[in-house]
Amino acid sequence: MTSQAADGPDTVAATRRSKITPEREREFFDAVLEQIRECGYDSVTMEGVAASTRCSKSTLYRQWKTKPQFVAAALRASRRVRFAGIDTGSLAEDLRQAARAAGDWSVKDTRLMQALGHAVTADQELAQALREALILPEVAALREMLGRGVERGEVPADHPALEYVPAMLFGVLRVRPVLCGQYADSGYLVRFVEATVLPALGLTEDPGHRSRDD
Amino acid sequence: MTSQAADGPDTVAATRRSKITPEREREFFDAVLEQIRECGYDSVTMEGVAASTRCSKSTLYRQWKTKPQFVAAALRASRRVRFAGIDTGSLAEDLRQAARAAGDWSVKDTRLMQALGHAVTADQELAQALREALILPEVAALREMLGRGVERGEVPADHPALEYVPAMLFGVLRVRPVLCGQYADSGYLVRFVEATVLPALGLTEDPGHRSRDD
DNA sequence: GTGTACCGATACGCATGAGTACCGGTACAC
DNA sequence: GTGTACCGGTACTCATGCGTATCGGTACAC
């Protein structure tokens, strides 16, 4: 209970009272997220993280009060928008690119979400961190992409399928392992987008011509 | 192993050496699945199941060797096909009915799948039981439904979207909670089917007329 | 050089849960 | 009635993990 050591909950490097560099902190975060992907949230132990990063359990507990707070901090710190930068000028091509991009990180993020899926129902902070780190940024980027398509007149603004595009994409990412036993790769996702998302949005250039090449 | 006493791994009442009636067995299975939905697989304890069913831990361990075997047996015993019996003569209406039906059990089954999602990566028997109990029967029923539509000529047999329909439906079931914070209800699922699945299959009667009533 | 404060290591208390062992009660077979 | 075998209860062993406490080393401030 040191008084002024009340550092923010997620990062500690801001208060330079700690000798843990931001790079070192990243190692902790990467390690715990990786172990969660591997073994599930419940099976991850602070001891295991400490061992794999060759730090001491004390060090972790000095910076973060509890395991869920530690994990939540790790999630917040790895917030990234994978869909950022996709803007080809065509909504259909944007969506294909998004599918391709999703295939690249889908394994890691899908496993993480799967592993955290039930832990978040027990810890509110964890749930919020997961949403803000992995879900909302991607959904927002996707909606932006769709918004540009609407502005260009490629899709009517009130098209009923618009609001379901994120659910379609993230949904197929999430069920593919349980349906087929393997994670969705870029090829599968692109085919999915072309077979379902684009037609649902009315984006197939010539509906009579079926352009499958597999 | 033992020749005729080789009771199936999932039910024990077949060998009437046990005094546990099938109804009693169902109570055990219902209890453990319910607790898994509530607390997650790891947090479920044999002690908790025994307490909630007012039986003894010994009783459970006499019938099932380990916790994963017990859970796998419970899964196999609750195998049911929810989509069975849907056959309206129209694929579009079949799919709407399926969506409506899915809304009814989606909460229970989605929570169960979510809760088991990571445990199955560690236990092979559990994974197989989950697939055979909750996944494959529904997918098969769905594919049958689609097959009938193809036979009736409503959709060409090689329509590229056909193979993705199960992924779309189960996908949206699975991501809805994490996207919106609530489980998918029947209304949402029907709207989803009408906005995405039917158009992707080319099943919108008059493409120009947008039939939304919300 | 001296001191402060953080790091790593280790050991510990405490709780919890898997799976086992034992024991008395009882229902059913015969 | 007698015996068998299963049920429920409880106590036990063993392992594991959270979170805390303690201690020596050391880097950096001044």
Automatic annotation (TrEMBL), chains A, B:
This protein's record includes keyword Glycosyltransferase: no
Domain of life: Bacteria
DNA-binding region: 45-64
Record keyword Ion transport present: no
Stretches assigned to the HTH tetR-type domain: 22-82
Keywords from the UniProt entry: DNA-binding, Transcription, Transcription regulation
InterPro entries found in the cross-reference section: Homeodomain-like_sf, HTH-type_TetR-like_transc_reg, HTH_TetR, Tet_transcr_reg_TetR-rel_C_sf, TetR_C
GO molecular function, one term: transcription cis-regulatory region binding
Protein's recorded name: TetR family transcriptional regulator
Pfam families: TetR_C_11 (PF16859), TetR_N (PF00440)
